[in-house]
C-alpha cells in the first residue's frame, strides 16, 4: 500500500530532470529497496537514518540509491532543503515526544520541493490492544504487558494522540492533505505483527529503567506468560494511519 502510493506520486511528478524520493528513518532500508524494484532507474532514491549500523552494504544497493546518516530532529543541513519530490517517513511513534511532531515535521516539509509530496505511515499506539481468538482463551497477561507499556510511555512523555490527528496537524503546517486513511490490522498478518510487537516489548524488560517500567522481574514474568497466551492465538494489534500531503507551489 505505502510503496504503491509513493510510486504513483513519482510517476505523476514532472518529467524534467530526475525525480528524487527520500525515505526518513530507513532502518535496514527494506522499504526503499522494495520501492527500487517498482520505479524507473532514473528515480533517485535517498535513505536517511539516525545510524548506519543497519544499512545494507553499498555493494548490494542499486546504483540510483544513496544512504546517509541524519538526525531528523536536529537542524536540517542546507543541502537537503527543497531537494525532494517525495518524502516518506514511517514508524516514528516511539521517538516523537510531547504529543506533537514539531521540529520533525518542519524538517520533512523543508526537504520538499514546491509541489512535492509527503507520505507519513504511522502505527497508532493509542488503541494498542490484545485480542483473543475466542471467549475461552485468556489474554490477561498480554493486557498486563500492554498496560505496563502504556504506563511507561506516559512517564517518558510519549503521548500518541497526535497520530490520529496527523492529517489536521499537516494541514495546520500549510500542507494540502491529498489523502488520509486508517488501515486496521489484517488477520493474515496478525501472527507476524504480534511476533514483531512482542520482540519490542521483550526489549523493554532489559533496556528501560524500573522507574519507568516498574519492577523488572514482574514485567518479565508477565511477558513470558503473555508469550504462552500468544501461542494459543492471542494477538496484539494496532491500526496504521497513512497521510499523504502536498507542499503547494506558491
UniProtKB/TrEMBL annotation:
It comes from the Eukaryota. InterPro entries: SAM-dependent_MTases_sf. This is Methyltransferase domain-containing protein.
